[in-house]
Recover the amino acids of this structure.
């Protein structure tokens, strides 16, 4: 993954061919586990904003921006979270590729200070890879809350790299970090620190052999030793890289085949010899070293300290016999530290308060994930957040005011009159201010109808996200989601789908298996109504609680039924669920507002062009008669499900945007053209209908054209089929709504 | 026999069989699925680490060192704990 070059001001080569990465701005790349505050650090450094969130896997794309530190400008890059150099998920592979291909000034490895023991292993891997590195201990405040003390200067000494402590959410320590970066720049680091970690006599020979085989290969960002280790673990990216690098003319094909064959044999032999998977063995070796370092620089409160002390011993015991001799870097660090137990007396008062805070959040946490109590809490969140705030307030009150009073009463008549007098051509008048005109329909709907609803949803979503409720919801619902072939992780795209299916389709990327991604995609396209549509449907049906109840039951049943069937039909293994649970956090208002804003911004940019496109297409369709033809065709299934032929309009609009269609339904309902049953059937069919052009495009992008076509080929007929069943069932039962 | 040596009194069972609120050590990980194993060790769930099971339902929630994890039964079955 090569990123475009950003050149320094004044020195810019202005996109000429010679604009190579070396001549661009010096790069700073943030890497680290998910949920350690990389994105918020990115914002603190660059001043611009990307989404920061409490849920693993929200930065699905690489964000980059400029930062000015001291006199110099830098390009700063945020990457999706990764746990180690050996990737497990698609997102991690993105980050890994970046490490292979970029040559930045410095990497900032961001870790959660509390979890130094767990994350330092990755730091060692990065050092092993010979990367220029600054270690950032983030969330120092949370570590302090738990009375964990870290001796930063000693850590820096034993690693041989700069270490900085920060609290990125409060911008603490950022100046120190900037200073460290500046110093790094001026030092003009040519000699990179290399920590030699000895993997023992069983493995070292293999590493050396592979390293020597790599001889003719091109230099990349990371060291040959690190590549050799990856190759030993049969990492896909490293293998691919090897093939690519050796396709150069000067080394013949035979050489390539010979060496990759040899490497494969070596990897096999090594893993056979070690009896356990090599990655397991290597990680244990690294952890041994980490335990040594952590034991020296970190002190924990009494209770936990005991535990971790024992753990260290048992950790070495667990590998009995694998290697007797201590490796030399770590042996030096085995001496025990004479504890920095100072500075404690004055902090007792403060700590009591902190302990109180932890206890309270513990209590709340226990309710949120309680198998019984958790469910009513979920319904409360849905009722207040989704129904009352988004449905009743935003989609009802706000939309009513904006659409009827502001736009219907003042703006539209004014614009229409002005336009009519300025442009005398009826065809153009129709395009801009006609019934489906760009201004009267596209812009009005986008601003007066969609924006307030989506904005309200994103506000609620951002609050929920920042508290850390989403991973808890994943835990709560994992068991139920398993029945429909998804893991608890899929909760996030599903909840987001209630806001915008298009955005949620992008987020399905964070799911682990292809099978899971397809099932989630189908369910998003079929049964999850987006906020714009949901808001309108709620307000149409809210006059009749029975209709609303039937609608919900039908949609929920569809969701379960199709998920269940899809999980039976689609090949592949059942998903497994493993998720890190971040602590509950009090959301910060500024963070929520900026986040809501940037999501609305994204949505608006995505939506408005499509609305305009829809208006233009309808206009062309009307001029050429295609629109009338399409309406005629859709009239058949429309009548078939018991609706008046006029309702075909709604479905045709529904194809352009689902919420657009819902708005059409709103219009028909207002003019009293539909009976209660018809309204219900139309609402159900429209909810199940393929969402919108944008979602369809995104499905193509994420899943490929064939899959996207297959999904829509299933959904269109199925939506009408369900409408048909519901209509006839209601008729049969003689229900009147 | 078991009581003769206190070290033998340590029993090794899967996380699934562990009682909630108990603290033990991760003894080893055992799985035929390399993906799961890789994921677990990458996330820092390693032998020798102290582990506390917090709840078993709706999913398994446990604490290793300073971090909490939620896993399903399938994965909990691969984590062997001694205490």
């Amino acid at each position: 993954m090569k990123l475009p070059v950003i050149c320094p001001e004044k020195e810019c080569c202005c996109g000429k061919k010679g604009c190579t990465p070396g001549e661009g701005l010096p790069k700073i790349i943030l890497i680290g586990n998910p949920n350690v505050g990389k994105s918020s650090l990115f914002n603190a450094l660059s001043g611009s904003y990307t989404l920061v969130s409490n849920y693993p896997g929200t930065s699905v794309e690489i964000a980059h921006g400029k930062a000015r530190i001291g006199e110099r400008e830098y390009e700063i890059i945020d990457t999706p979270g990764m746990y180690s150099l050996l990737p497990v998920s698609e997102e991690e592979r993105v980050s890994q590729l970046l490490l292979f291909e970029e040559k930045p000034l410095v990497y900032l490895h961001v870790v959660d200070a509390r979890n130094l023991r767990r994350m330092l292993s990755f730091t060692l891997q990065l050092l092993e890879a010979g990367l220029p590195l600054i270690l950032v201990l983030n969330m120092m405040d949370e570590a302090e809350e738990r009375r964990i003390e870290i001796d930063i200067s000693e850590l820096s000494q034993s690693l041989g790299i700069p270490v900085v402590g920060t609290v990125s959410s409060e911008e603490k320590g950022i100046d120190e970090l900037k200073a460290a970066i500046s110093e790094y720049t001026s030092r003009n680091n040519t000699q990179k620190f290399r920590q030699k970690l000895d993997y023992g006599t069983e493995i070292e020979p293999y590493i050396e052999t592979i390293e020597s085989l790599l001889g003719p290969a091109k230099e990349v960002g990371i060291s040959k030793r690190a590549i050799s280790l990856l190759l030993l673990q049969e990492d896909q990216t490293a293998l691919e890289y090897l093939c690519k690098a050796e396709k150069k003319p000067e080394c013949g094909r035979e050489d390539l085949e010979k060496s990759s064959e040899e490497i494969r044999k070596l990897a096999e032999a090594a893993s056979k010899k070690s009896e356990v998977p090599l990655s397991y063995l290597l990680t244990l070796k690294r952890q041994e070293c980490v335990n040594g370092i952590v034991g020296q620089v970190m002190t924990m409160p009494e209770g936990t300290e005991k535990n971790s002390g024992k753990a260290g011993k048992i950790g070495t015991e667990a590998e009995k016999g694998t290697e007797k001799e201590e490796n030399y870097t770590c042996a030096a660090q085995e001496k025990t530290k004479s504890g920095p137990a100072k500075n404690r007396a004055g902090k007792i008062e403060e700590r009591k308060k902190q302990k109180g805070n932890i206890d309270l959040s513990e209590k709340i946490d226990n309710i949120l994930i309680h198998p019984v109590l958790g469910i009513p809490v979920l319904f409360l969140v849905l009722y207040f957040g989704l129904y009352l705030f988004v449905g009743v307030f935003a989609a009802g009150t706000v939309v009513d005011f904006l659409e009827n009073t502001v736009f219907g009463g003042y703006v539209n008549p004014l614009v229409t009159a002005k336009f009519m007098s300025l442009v005398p051509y009826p065809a153009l008048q129709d395009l801009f201010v006609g019934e489906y005109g760009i201004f009267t329909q596209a812009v009005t709907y986008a601003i007066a109808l969609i924006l307030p609803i989506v904005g309200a949803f994103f506000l609620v979503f951002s609050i929920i996200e920042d508290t850390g409720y989403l991973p808890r919801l994943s835990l709560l619902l994992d068991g139920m989601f398993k029945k429909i072939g998804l893991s608890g992780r899929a909760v996030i795209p599903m909840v987001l789908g209630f806001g915008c299916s298009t955005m949620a389709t992008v987020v399905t990327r964070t799911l682990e298996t292809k099978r899971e991604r397809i099932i989630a995609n189908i369910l998003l396209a079929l049964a999850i109504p987006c906020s714009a549509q949901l808001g309108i449907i709620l307000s149409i049906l809210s006059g009749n609680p029975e209709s609303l109840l039937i609608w919900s039951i039908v949609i929920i049943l569809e969701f379960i039924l199709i998920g269940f069937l899809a999980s039976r039909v689609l090949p592949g293994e059942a998903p497994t669920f493993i998720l890190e649970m971040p602590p509950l956090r009090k959301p910060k208002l500024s963070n929520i507002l900026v986040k809501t804003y940037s999501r609305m911004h994204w949505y608006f940019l995505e939506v408005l062009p499509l609305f305009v496109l829809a208006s233009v297409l309808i206009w062309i369709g009307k001029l050429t008669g295609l629109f009338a033809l399409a309406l005629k065709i859709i009239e058949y299934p429309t009548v078939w499900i018991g609706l008046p032929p006029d309702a075909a309009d709604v479905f045709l609009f529904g194809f352009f945007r689902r919420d657009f269609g819902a708005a059409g339904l709103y219009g028909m309902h207002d003019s009293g053209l539909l009976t209660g049953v018809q309204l219900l059937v139309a609402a159900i069919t429209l909810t199940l209908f393929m969402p919108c052009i944008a979602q369809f495009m995104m499905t193509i992008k994420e899943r490929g054209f064939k899959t996207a076509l297959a999904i829509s080929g299933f959904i269109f007929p199925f939506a009408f089929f369900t409408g048909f069943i519901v209509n006839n069932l209601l008729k049969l039962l003689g229900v009147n709504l | 026999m078991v009581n003769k040596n206190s070290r033998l009194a340590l029993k090794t069972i899967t996380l699934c069989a562990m009682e909630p609120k108990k603290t033990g050590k991760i003894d080893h990980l055992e799985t035929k699925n390399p993906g799961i194993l890789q994921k677990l060790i990458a996330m820092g769930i390693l032998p020798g680490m102290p582990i506390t099971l917090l709840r078993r339902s709706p999913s398994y929630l446990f604490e290793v060192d300073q971090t909490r994890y939620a896993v399903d039964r399938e994965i909990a079955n691969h984590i062997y704990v001694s205490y």
The CA atoms of residues 215 and 224 of chain A lie 9 Å apart. The beta strands of chain A are 27-31, 63-69, 72-78, 106-112, 133-138, 149-150, 163-165, 298-299, 578-581. Residues 374-576+591-732 of chain A form one domain.
